[in-house]
Amino acid sequence: xxxxxxxxxxxxxxxxxxxxxxxxxxxxxxxxxxxxxxxxxxxxxxxxxxxxxxxxxxxxxxxxxxxxxxxxxxxxxxxxxxxxxxxxxxxxxxxx
Length: 96
What we know:
The chain has helices spanning about 5-25, 30-35, 55-70, 75-90. The chain is mostly helical.
């Protein structure tokens, strides 16, 4: 995914503010009716890709133990943890 330039981000932010202002002028009932009739926006995601990595046997056994306690497969738990860490890093390194 490419990063948007500052000019484009600024333009999109201004457009969003304009839309917010326009919607704020509409009667609440009209806006709610439109929202109720709107179709949800769905972004298709590509299928997950398998990844191979080498881990310490002790770490693997601990991950399996944690997964058993949570009642999920250990691979799913690792994927969840990795996703959480990625989201956390995105927030920390997000450009202003």
